[in-house]
Amino acid sequence: MKSADTWLSNPTLAYADWQRREAAGANRRPFAARSIVQHQAMFEHFRRHLLAARTTLATFGPDHIDAFWQSPDALGYSTATRMRYLKLLDRFCRHLVAVGVRESNPANQLVRNGHWPKDEPDPIYLPEDADARLQAWVQPHDGDDLAALRSGAMVAFFLATGITAAEARTARREDLQPGTSTPYLRVPAHGARDTRTVPIGSFAVPILAEWHVRRQTLPVDGELVFSLRASGEPITDMSFGKIVRAALMAIDFEDEDLSPRVLRNTYCRRQLLAGQGQDEVSKLLGLASTRTCDRIRATIAQQL
């Protein structure tokens, strides 16, 4: 019973303990250490989604999984990534049923209906002309109010560094250094990603430098780069998504995905167009493999 209670009182601890002691892949072999770290990060992402929806591991249903795909970070997930999530949900939900936390597995039918893709869709990115328009859009202007300055800085942050929404949400002021001779952002290690230092694109320096100064004058607790509340709480993924979507619509860019992921893909493609290799760009993105860069480089080859 103690194990069942922990899944409800401390889901993060319960998942980590179960993953370490019992979880295994389809071949019944324990997962590799790196896979365990990745799975824990995926679990935490979904757990935060349930927390925002005011439900628990014991009560969420297929509708909550469907809603998860519509969240800003998950909106652009490939079919393969969705299948990885479904398999993870199916594994731990079967365990929750076994230990009496749940009566049924909401992921069972979804994972049965799913399939691994033979070909993944092309990643969505801003073409060079749209990238240039957005770079111009984020420039600061005299008379910008706080909301306009903050929104422009947020968009520039994504477009100039290629970080994820989760990384932007926890970015701290001390890690953003737009006033140095070589402006950079330090992204601390998290999950399966090591600490990395990302040079900031020159187009973003004016607005990030102005926001960096302005942020220090605001009556906001904490050291986060961005916060919507005086209490210093992190900005939500939904707020990031709304701000990025508004910016992309302002430059007349429309596609099925208008999330921060588009700006991350655009950053990746811009670096590849500038002649950087896949290994180097993958490291800037915090990725262990070049798979993402390989897919985006393919979009460049298609234009040649």
UniProtKB/TrEMBL annotation:
Report any one BP term from Gene Ontology. DNA integration
Q: Which InterPro entries match?
A: DNA_brk_join_enz, Integrase-like_cat_sf, Integrase_catalytic, Integrase_recombinase_N
Signal sequence segment: none
Q: Which domain of life is it from?
A: Bacteria
Per UniProt, residues of the Tyr recombinase domain are 121-304
Keywords linked to the UniProt accession = DNA recombination, DNA-binding, Plasmid
* Molecular functions per Gene Ontology: DNA binding
A Pfam family hit: Phage_integrase
Q: Quote the protein name from its UniProt record.
A: Tyrosine-type recombinase/integrase
Give the organism, scientific name.
Answer: Cupriavidus basilensis
